[in-house]
């Protein structure tokens, strides 16, 4: 269960870009993908702003045969997985028959597909409901479709843990590579921009009701008024690293450490579970707090949850002890895809020696936080920490580090 695991491919589909370098360029420029929801009329609801992948023409990315049987979420996932495989520059057919697998995370499943079929059931009758409804809504469908598309017959799995699930999926893939699997595709995908999903999200009373995109999602700010949901997919290719017989020549960096905790008190903002996850991830990476050069924070933009995250960071790293960034302010909280996107951005930050900014936000008067705001910050970066929390008490933390000495 030991041995290094590295990331050799990145695939990103987000509200501010398609493809890794497009997303990275947009992120460094602070280009926001937040706007009023376009896919349906949100005016009858109290929340209007979201991060939507636009424009996105699925027929340009997947076969016409797949479109009738997939939810928008799965189309994003398949596209991101394709990007990641191409980025890794690997021929999957050259791997052993059971030598490659896939693990994905999803928070909600295929809501949009499900809503459409329910509408057909109510308005036309059961004979008009698509047979694909039997699986298109399911949390595990992205794993299955990616596996079929790429002929992946090795280990497979799915994680449901809201935002934290994205990192947990990467951690599960890491374990499989350590056990001897030659390659794993792992990541998260979610899309919840339809009325049925929108109402379900509103029920948590944590969504921002702001009507201006640049004021809607401002974590750690005195104006914080809730999070903005977004859609997207982020997939990584994981392979054995140094010391293995099949270790790749080029990689973005190493998945050095991970830990997950659960604490039901998280909803009150009084959870110690997040700090514990951070501490355990550092132990798993054999690093100390002083070794971490940047933290990609969860950034809920809910006061009690922001306060608890600031406390956890300060308890581990000291007050203003480490630069912190929340680039998801440009795209919204992408649920299971969100922390995987952060992980990809962290690896790109290590590669280029630059911390992407948090936009539209500034540390509140009661937050002693070295938040990177407005513009990217050049820095010598060797290791980064990514934090993710899921609704109800899930916590996950992951450390990535550069391969350069």
Automatic annotation (TrEMBL):
* Highest taxon above the source species: Bacteria
- Output the GO biological process annotations, alphabetical, semicolon-separated: fatty acid biosynthetic process
The record's InterPro entries line, in alphabetical order, gives: Beta-ketoacyl_synthase, Ketoacyl_synth_C, Ketoacyl_synth_N, PKS_Beta-ketoAc_synthase_dom, Thiolase-like
Q: Where is the Ketosynthase family 3 (KS3) domain?
A: 2-402
Record keywords: Transferase included?
Answer: yes
Q: What class of enzyme is it?
A: transferase
Q: Which residues form the signal peptide?
A: none
UniProt-listed Enzyme Commission number(s): 2.3.1.-
For this UniProt entry, the molecular function terms from Gene Ontology, in alphabetical order, are: 3-oxoacyl-[acyl-carrier-protein] synthase activity
> Which keywords, in A-to-Z order, does the entry hold?
Acyltransferase, Transferase
PANTHER family (UniProt xref): POLYKETIDE BETA-KETOACYL SYNTHASE 2-RELATED (PTHR11712:SF322), POLYKETIDE SYNTHASE-RELATED (PTHR11712)
User: What protein family is recorded?
Assistant: Belongs to the thiolase-like superfamily. Beta-ketoacyl-ACP synthases family.
Q: What is this protein called?
A: Act minimal PKS chain-length factor (CLF/KS beta)
Provide the organism lineage as a comma list.
Answer: Bacteria, Bacillati, Actinomycetota, Actinomycetes, Pseudonocardiales
């Amino acid at each position: 269960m030991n041995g290094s695991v590295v990331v050799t491919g990145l695939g990103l589909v987000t509200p501010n870009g398609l493809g890794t370098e497009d997303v990275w360029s947009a992120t460094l420029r602070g280009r926001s993908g937040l706007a009023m929801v376009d896919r349906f009329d949100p005016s009858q609801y109290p929340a209007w702003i979201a991060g939507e992948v636009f424009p996105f023409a699925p027929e340009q990315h997947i076969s016409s045969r797949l479109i009738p049987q997939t939810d928008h979420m799965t189309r994003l996932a398949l596209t991101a997985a394709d990007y990641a495989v191409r980025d890794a520059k690997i021929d999957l057919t050259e791997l052993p028959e059971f030598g490659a697998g896939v693990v994905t995370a999803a928070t909600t499943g295929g809501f949009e597909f499900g809503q459409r079929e329910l509408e057909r059931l109510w308005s036309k009758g059961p004979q008009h409901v698509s047979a694909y409804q039997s699986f298109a809504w399911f949390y595990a469908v992205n794993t299955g479709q990616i596996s079929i598309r790429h002929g992946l017959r090795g280990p497979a799995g799915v994680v449901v843990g809201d935002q934290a699930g994205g990192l947990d999926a990467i951690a599960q893939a890491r374990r499989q590579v350590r056990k001897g699997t030659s390659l794993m595709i792992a990541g998260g995908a979610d899309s919840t921009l339809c009325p049925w999903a929108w109402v379900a999200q509103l029920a948590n009373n944590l969504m921002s009701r702001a009507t201006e995109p640049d004021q809607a999602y401002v974590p750690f700010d005195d104006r914080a008024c809730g999070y903005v949901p977004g859609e997207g997919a982020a997939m990584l290719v994981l392979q054995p690293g140094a010391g293995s017989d099949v270790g790749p020549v080029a990689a973005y960096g190493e998945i050095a450490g991970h830990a997950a905790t659960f604490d039901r008190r998280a909803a009150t903002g009084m959870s110690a579970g997040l700090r514990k996850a951070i501490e355990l991830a550092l132990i798993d990476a054999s690093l100390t707090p002083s070794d971490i050069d940047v933290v990609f924070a969860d950034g809920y933009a809910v006061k009690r949850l922001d306060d608890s995250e600031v406390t956890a960071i300060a308890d581990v790293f000291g007050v203003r002890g480490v630069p912190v960034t929340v680039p998801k302010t440009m795209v919204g909280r992408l649920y299971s895809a969100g922390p995987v996107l952060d992980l990809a951005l962290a690896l790109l930050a290590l590669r280029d020696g630059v911390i992407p900014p948090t936009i539209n936000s500034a540390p509140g008067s009661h937050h002693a936080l070295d938040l990177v705001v407005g513009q990217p910050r050049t820095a010598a970066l060797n290791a980064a920490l990514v934090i993710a929390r899921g609704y109800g008490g899930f916590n996950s933390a992951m450390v990535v580090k550069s391969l350069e000495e």
